[in-house]
Specification:
Length: about 400
Amino acid sequence: MTSQKTTFTIDSVRSQFPALSQQVNQQPLAYFDSAATTQKPLAVINAIRDYYSGHNANVHRGSHSLTATATSQFEAARSRVKNFINAKDEKEIIWTRGATEALNLIAQTYARNTLQAGDEILVSELEHHANIVPWQIVAEQTGAKVVKIPMTPDCQLDMAAYQDLLSQKTKIVAVAHVTNVTGTLLPIDSIIEQAHHVGAVVVVDGAQGIVHHTIDVQTLNADFYVFSGHKLYAPAGIGVLYGKQALLEAMPPWHGGGKMVEKVSFEGTTFSTLPGKFEAGTPNVAGAIALATAIDWITQFEQAEVEAHIHALRDYAVEQIKDLDDIRFIGLQPNASLFSFVIDGVHHQDIATLLDQQGVAVRSGHHCAHPLLDALKLKGTIRVSFALYNTKQDVDRFITALHKACELL
């Protein structure tokens, strides 16, 4: 039985985000940096407050009522994530601090223990540094080689080049679901299918994709899929590593400490079963509960309605600024939640600073994606990213502020 969805209306949604009612530099805040981190609804803020004010205790330890309640909520959150991405079992859901830690965990457990000298890790040129650097580190440790999958001039993955690069040497393919600079949606289904033909394991960075697309990891058939809570209206410091159970079972632990052990002695240690094997120490209990709350909050709406709202705002913004002198959009994608641009002859940081002085928050810089910017021969861009709480009034303020900034520069 399908639960009743809440009708999406921007006024009712906007009122649930207290941070958006503040002023910045004596101007109402117009927040366009949601691809970096989203603002948080009251439901999530209250979930954190409720945990610390009434249920604060460690989990899987002790026998008192508080720890029993905390453990129940903590594991219920894991179950909620499992259902959200349609994993087969809660054992496939590993709590991490975020997508970055999840990628490092995979690199230092699965990859480090399977790669050999001469093996290849294919990594797309479109990646965030978090999905590049861990592979470079493990390549140095094992003698494997990181091989770039190039992108096309329009910021798509070069699938012809990808097919040519795949070989029996390919052991891991690491790609983003959606890129953070241009919003490019990669053809994940095809990437995974082709990688599996040569026996490679696929790691998907879903930090951007999880926010705007329905994820079914069983249908997708990704071996690993990672994401962060803070881009999904949840707090910072909580993230998820999904891995196929057989792979996770075969991987050694990464961090040692409490919870991830069954028995410790100076003669030897036996480790916990999944998922505890990868969750050493006291976890971010409040973060896990708040992530489950964020998932409940966002899934109350029809995703198609939310995305239509976001796309309409983004397209309106692009249409209104496209005729500015010397403006150049970078890899503009259809049906995306963001866009990046430069004003030729003007430093991206200067634009962002002038926008901030008018209360408009955007991202400027290389966006933790040096290889992508290097391929485009750019030092940085201005990125404008949207979320369901943005309004047409926000966009109009951005447009006015950008015109003023360009006049001043």
